From TrEMBL:
One cellular-component annotation, GO: cytosol
Subunit structure: Homotetramer.
Organism: Pacificibacter marinus
Binding sites annotated in the UniProt record for Zn(2+): C145, C147, C182, H185
Keyword entries, A-Z: ATP-binding, Cytoplasm, DNA synthesis, Kinase, Metal-binding, Nucleotide-binding, Transferase, Zinc
Protein name as it appears in the record: Thymidine kinase
Length: 196
């Protein structure tokens, strides 16, 4: 039976690289895939999943409020798909995660989602909270802090490296940077305040 998968991590752990590699493995065996990523300022459907190591693939996009069950059903009506891959899954809404779960159960297609677990203030992203609740299988993609411990948290910094502790959960098009840290160093960098 098909399953809903969630692979989560902090920033710069190589999630998109893993997604692209897994999709490649399907296509190498002659099986078609359907890649979807979050729609930001690009026009609908004109997304791209790119990894920091220089590989990338064009992808369809999901927008706010878009019905992903209907989108997947429409795509499956065109030709068979062996697996659906979704990047930036932290930006899914709770409704959209349920739509993916229904697609897995009722259309019998595996859906592999990849996303960030926590925002820069240490809170779960809504899409990740719903995926942690609903996914059949979950896996943590690991990366390390500068101290060598596993990095589970992320700080947002300004261009000059100042750590930012306030601001919107999603900043698009700014000059913010992100650094992945273990919890102890995250607490040190953010002044050990309980986040809002
Ligand atoms: Zn550390």
């Amino acid at each position: 039976m098909a399953k809903l998968y969630f692979q989560y991590s902090t920033m710069n752990a190589g999630k998109s690289t893993l997604l692209l590699q897994a999709a490649h493995n399907y296509r190498e065996r002659g099986m078609d895939t359907y890649l979807i990523t979050a729609q930001f300022d690009n026009r609908a459907g004109e997304g791209r999943i790119a990894s920091r190591i220089g590989i990338g693939e064009p992808a369809d996009t999901f927008g706010k409020g878009e019905d992903l069950f209907a989108k997947i059903q429409a795509r499956l009506a065109q030709s068979p798909i062996s697996c659906i891959f979704i990047d930036e899954a932290q930006f899914l809404s709770k409704d959209q995660v349920w739509q993916l779960a229904r697609a897995v159960d009722d259309l019998n297609v595996p859906v592999m989602t990849y996303g960030l677990r926590l925002d820069f203030q240490g809170n779960l992203f809504p899409g990740s909270a719903s995926l942690l609740a609903l996914a059949d299988e979950m896996r943590e993609v690991r990366t390390i802090c500068h101290c060598g411990k596993k990095a589970t948290m992320v700080v947002r910094t300004s261009e000059d490296g100042t750590v930012l502790t306030t601001g919107a959960q999603v900043e698009i098009g700014g000059n913010e940077r992100y650094v992945s840290l273990c919890r102890r160093h995250w607490r040190q960098e953010t002044g050990d305040q309980t986040p809002e």
